[in-house]
């Protein structure tokens, strides 16, 4: 996942909430601004009946092809595909396209975009319904230090308390689960001749860059996608304890740069930095940026842009029920959660429920980066002619990127900072699927079959451009799977292949079984929901 | 000069004021806070009689050794001595020491410090008085682009409207004028057997780093320096039009880093950056730094630290007379000054006199650099665990570094920002010599002899640790010389060697003649002032 939604792939989002299923409801919730939880019911995935499908012949095939399947994952991670550095991108795109062709996908193609190509393939199962499988074939760059194996060697190593893992860039983010899904599909085709549903694989090679051109890929296959009934994204969702989790949406985002620079009206050097002593008689773009930024938050760092939260709708009954389900027992988990984040408290002293509510239902205004002048070691005295802040805001339902930008612009103007330039670098709305959608319930049923009762979040705090499916195409979208990995954007990324005895983590064969069942279960759900 | 006092060597400080000698006084000066000019008299260097000494034999010797003297400058600039990169530093220190020995200095030595070595030499002329010559043997790093010659080739090239120049790193900052001074001394010794005054050369190799260890060099030779009567620093002071200028002091400085980081009390991630979406529930050190900084200035960027200017004494009568002398005709010059700085106006709409008064008499609070999180191109969403501002304040008489720091600390504490760490990176007080000091008048007399009527600034806006002479040792200190150069901290640094016909810029021989006269003139002044 991109840096925007890293938390999907790292365990501290849903996973951090996932062990919180024990205590009583908290109807008297002391909420951050505008987040009021009045619903007293809590969603509990155990209310969904376990999926009863059984595909013994397919499972046997999975056992049979076990070694080959591990090799498939290795083959994928051995092909570098670093989108930020355009390293191996073309090769990986071709590899994916060719793998789809071998599986029986037709019309397979690289999809040219303004950036890295997308990959398309259509599996015609002669079915009435069609499932889109979203994939990303790119990976994060390699950290210069910290790797204990070659990041592209496809190493299988024994990790204490985990078992045998595939340790490589892309192992869990996202090649491992994606190829495991294709392995499952392969076994289905080998035993049953075809999958129970038509499939469209629509992959991108720029997820780690924030999916800037994925809408182009979607637009190109618009006609084919209009016939689809839902979208699925394969993902390892088990945490280290083996607990799986589910989320039903993502926040939107608007990412901007705010720049102050030397200006004929507000003064300051326009051409280049000048000597620092000139602060006596020249205006400073750096101070100007600081003062402008300071009008956007309170001294405590809370959003102070008038009306910024006005558009946000209150959590609806479903979201409140999901929230209640998630935060049961949250108090008992908060020390662990904070430790995982390296923080000593929640924002401005919020309690754990307020923090969780903010993460799910509130917008943000975050400084991603600040830069002006001399940033090296020691002493250099200059008055910089420009200063830049990188700022992002996560958007919840009813917020839009342009509306958010307009409110920030308006506040800066009102405070006299008309000269501060705002450059929008990216922006898209949130996306969400209902817990009551047949697709969601089908997935939950499969989790139930495998002994999981996943906490279900209405959304995560991170962002991804899933609106292209949920909003542009009006399709329900779910993501999930068994399996555990970590280190998505860090050294020593891994996915567990053979868990240690006694572990609740699924091994590769179990991960693939889950996908087999899910294919049939989702297919049933699509039939049931009709179109 | 270091980045702190770059403006000594570039033409926009005094030089920018130097053509302002035409108009009436402005007794009704509308001043920035606390700067009130009540004095109506203006200092005019033409009131100082021209020096009448004549050293025809020495001048003849200078003519004779002209080519050798140019070669000496070339030899110096061909030896790299980049203090920031420790490139050629040891070699240049040895070269200087050996040159001093060859001239007849005794006890010459490299002076070990915690950083780059100093260089010491004593010329015993058997005189009653002793002049310290401050030198710096280090230079700025080479800019990666923009040089039209090899920066260490010692190239002599013809520049339009200037004439033949030595174009090299260090040509004007400060090897050119320093070696020209030693050439002059050489000619004096060759013709007269010895200089008229004992000399102590005390050089440093860290001027471009802010002279962090020069006090160690001074301390080591404290006893010898106690016998000295004054200090001189050779410098090209002519601007492109040939107008020389003089300054009598420097501001002090305190340079600090302000850092906000994840903190048990104020929150935020303590270990490393976290995902940007966590801004919903974690505190942000970056916002905290922004809000803390915002308490130090007004929205317009004026200092808002209570009491920050309280210690500053009003400009005394001498300073006011000097100021009045400098700003005569300032209005006519301001467009040129602003253009030189690349700015459209003075700070917050000050007029040119207010701006000049602020530069001379007011303190500053300047952001030299800001850095947090991701500062590269494009989109990366993180919540940085630390944010740093590099801030410097220029100090005028009666301010001290520690007092300035304490006031900033107090303001941050009062506004609830106790957690912002302030790290002092350097600090020293201002330095100043009187226009009525015999040394100053002697130098002015020599300028007068060469047809110059330099504007005399009580100080410059930049800083240098001259307090070690003026305050620690109680010595008057002056800097000056004829000669023109530019590009001190920029590509294509040069010093004019043979000016174009009709130019008022002094050629190398004339620069050396000035130093010959100055040696005798200063010697006379030291005798006159007694000790």
TrEMBL record, chains A, B:
- Alphabetized UniProt keyword annotations: Hydrolase, Metal-binding, Protease, Signal
Signal peptide residues on this chain, from the entry's feature table: 1-30
Task: Report the InterPro entries cross-referenced here.
Answer: Cyt/Met_Dipeptidase, Peptidase_M20, Peptidase_M20_dimer
Q: Which domain of life is it from?
A: Bacteria
- Keyword Cell cycle present in the record's keywords: the answer is no
Q: Any idea where the Peptidase M20 dimerisation domain is?
A: 272-416
Protein's UniProt name: M20/M25/M40 family metallo-hydrolase
Q: Please give the organism.
A: Lysobacter gummosus
């Amino acid at each position: 996942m991109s840096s925007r939604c890293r938390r999907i792939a790292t365990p501290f989002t849903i996973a951090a909430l996932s062990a919180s299923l024990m205590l009583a409801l908290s109807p008297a919730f002391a909420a951050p601004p505008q987040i009021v939880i009045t619903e007293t019911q809590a969603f509990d995935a155990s209310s969904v009946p376990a999926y009863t499908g059984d595909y013994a012949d397919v499972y046997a095939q999975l056992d049979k092809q076990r070694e080959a399947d591990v090799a498939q994952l290795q083959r994928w991670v051995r092909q570098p595909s670093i989108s930020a550095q355009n390293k191996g991108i073309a090769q990986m795109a071709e590899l994916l396209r060719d793998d789809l062709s071998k599986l029986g996908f037709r019309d397979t193609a690289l999809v040219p975009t303004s950036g890295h190509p997308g990959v398309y393939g259509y599996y015609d199962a002669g079915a009435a319904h069609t499932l889109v499988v979203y994939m990303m074939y790119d990976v994060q760059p390699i950290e210069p230090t910290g790797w204990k194996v070659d990041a592209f060697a496809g190493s299988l190593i024994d990790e204490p308390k985990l078992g045998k893992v595939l340790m490589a860039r892309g192992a869990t983010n996202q090649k491992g689960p994606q190829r495991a899904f294709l392995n499952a599909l392969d076994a289905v085709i080998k035993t049953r001749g075809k999958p129970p549903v038509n499939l469209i694989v629509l992959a991108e090679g720029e997820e780690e860059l924030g999916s800037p051109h994925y809408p182009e890929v979607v637009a190109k296959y618009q006609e084919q996608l209009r016939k689809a009934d839902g979208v699925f994204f394969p993902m390892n969702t088990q945490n280290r304890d083996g607990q799986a989790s589910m989320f039903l949406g993502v926040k939107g985002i608007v990412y901007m740069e705010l720049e102050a620079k030397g200006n004929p009206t507000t003064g300051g050097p326009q051409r280049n930095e000048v000597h620092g002593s000139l602060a006596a008689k020249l205006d400073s773009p750096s101070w100007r940026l600081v003062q402008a930024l300071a009008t956007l938050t309170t001294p405590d760092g809370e959003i102070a842009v008038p009306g910024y939260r006005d558009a946000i709708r209150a959590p609806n009954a479903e979201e409140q029920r999901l929230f209640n389900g998630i935060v049961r027992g949250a108090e008992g988990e908060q020390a662990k959660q904070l430790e995982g984040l390296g923080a000593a408290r929640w924002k401005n002293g919020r309690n754990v429920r307020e923090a969780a509510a903010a993460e799910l239902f509130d917008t943000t205004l975050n400084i991603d980066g600040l830069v002006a002048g001399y940033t090296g070691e020691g002493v250099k005295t200059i008055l910089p002619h420009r200063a830049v802040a990188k700022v992002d805001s996560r958007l919840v339902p009813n917020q839009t990127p342009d509306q958010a930008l307009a409110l920030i612009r308006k506040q800066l103007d009102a405070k006299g900072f008309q000269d501060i330039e705002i450059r929008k670098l990216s922006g898209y709305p949130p996306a969400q699927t209902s817990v009551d959608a047949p697709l969601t319930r089908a997935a939950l049923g499969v989790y139930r079959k495998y002994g999981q009762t996943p906490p279900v979040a209405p959304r995560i705090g991170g962002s991804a451009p899933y609106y292209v499916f949920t909003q542009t195409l009006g399709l329900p979208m779910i993501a999930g799977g068994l399996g555990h990995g970590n280190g998505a954007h860090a050294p020593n990324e891994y996915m567990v292949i053979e868990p240690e005895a006694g572990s609740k983590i699924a091994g590769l064969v179990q991960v693939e079984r889950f996908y087999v069942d899910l294919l049939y279960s989702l297919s049933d759900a699509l039939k049931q929901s009709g179109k």
